[in-house]
Design goal:
The chain has 364 residues and is of the alpha+beta class. It folds into two domains: 13-221, no CATH class; 236-341, no CATH class. The chain has eleven helices and ten strands. Helix 8 packs across helix 9 (293-306). The radius of gyration is 24 Å and the shape is globular. The relative contact order is 0.12.
């Protein structure tokens, strides 16, 4: 049995009025890396309306199985040779180093608790597409969620946003055992298009209009999506604090060890720069200093000039639009109670002890 469910009116105004487009690449099969061209030459940004229409069209197309269908990836790839995370040259273009910007969050579920109907309920009020996959069976749900974001983000921010969406689904679903397909949480993952798959017991597709949230919504509302700590009582709760521009903080005084360590790195310098940015941001937070992204970018670009990565380098735009916001976000997650707050707490505790001592003296 097969059926397709879709809205008659496709809502495009929210994104089109803001002139927003969707980065999208498409591939002929799961081992395709674009070295011989892309499916339908699709490795560029398209309008949100065109993206929605593409999904709706594929949802009506018959496929004997998923191996006969093309795949999507939520980014546009640089057409250049690049090193993989294993230090070897990538075959083709689909790899982390070539992934650029993203505006789509894809989430796969193969858990029975998240049926097609449950997925629609969980995402109620949020703009999204929901469809069953080629492996979907009545007693073994296989569902894919596609959620657009209001802003364009890079690789690191996108990965955190997808993980935040996963936490959001889990909390709304209320099933502790549920988890998404953790092998597809990055920008260069591949996802089969919707369709009428003969291998599925039923095929469903729906577009749900709703609010289109920025990446920060998924990052800030669900700030620690990777952390699954079963001993919550042992984790120190974050405290409220205010950072200031007037605090004295100098990276070459406060972070000289981390900077020197980067300058001596012989490999993995590209990722090393992002880790350095996290360390710098953590140092500033611990000091109580509100570091500006432009200031952090100046430091990272200077260290990159001194010890540049072997394959490719960061641009200022890349740092400000993606890498540094995600680095600062990670730093804030890592520093639950900044050192300057702990110091203030110690002083207050000692003052309280002194007041209690003198009050006791007065009563004797």
């Amino acid at each position: 049995m097969s059926n397709t469910t879709s809205n008659d009116i496709f809502n495009t105004e929210r994104l089109l009025l803001q002139g927003q487009t969707i980065p999208l690449s498409m591939f002929n099969h799961k081992k395709d890396s674009g070295e011989n061209g892309f499916f339908n030459d699709q490795n560029h940004c398209i309008s949100y309306q065109e993206f929605g229409a593409t999904l709706e069209w594929f949802a009506t197309q018959p496929f004997a199985g998923k191996e006969k269908a093309p795949l999507m990836s939520p980014t546009v790839y640089r057409l250049q040779r690049a090193l993989g995370t294993n230090g070897k040259w990538c075959i083709g273009y689909r790899c982390k180093a070539n992934a650029t910007l993203c505006r789509l969050l894809f989430l796969d579920s193969d858990h029975a608790a998240l049926s097609f109907e449950a997925a629609c309920e969980v995402l109620a009020g949020h703009e999204c597409f929901v469809y069953t996959t080629a492996s979907h069976q009545a007693d073994r749900a296989r569902v894919r969620l596609v959620v657009p974001m209001a802003d364009m983000v890079g690789y690191e921010t996108h990965k955190c946003a997808v993980a935040g969406l996963s936490r959001f689904v889990k909390e709304r679903l209320g099933v502790a055992e549920w988890k998404c397909d953790t092998g597809k949480l990055n920008a260069y993952s591949l996802f089969y298009v919707p369709g009428q798959y003969a291998s599925a017991s039923e095929n469903k597709f729906v577009y749900l209009p709703g609010d289109i949230q920025p990446a920060e919504y998924w990052l800030s509302q669900y700030p620690d999506p990777y952390k699954e700590n079963t001993h919550e009582e042992l984790v120190m709760a974050p405290v409220e604090y205010t950072l200031s521009d007037s605090v004295l903080w100098n990276p070459y005084d406060n972070c000289i060890t981390q900077i020197a360590s980067y300058r001596m790195k012989k490999e993995d310098r590209y990722n090393g720069l992002w880790n350095l940015a996290v360390s710098l941001a953590m140092s500033a937070i611990n000091k109580g200093y509100r570091i500006r992204l432009t200031e952090l970018a100046d430091i990272i670009l200077e260290e990159q000039r001194r010890n540049p990565p072997s394959a490719h380098c960061y641009t200022r735009e890349m740092l400000l639009n993606d890498k540094l916001p995600s680095a600062v976000h990670r730093a804030r997650r890592n520093v639950s109670v900044p050192a300057f707050v702990r110091a203030e707490q110690v002083i207050e505790e000692r003052m309280a002890e002194m007041r209690a001592y003198f009050q006791e003296e007065e009563t004797i």
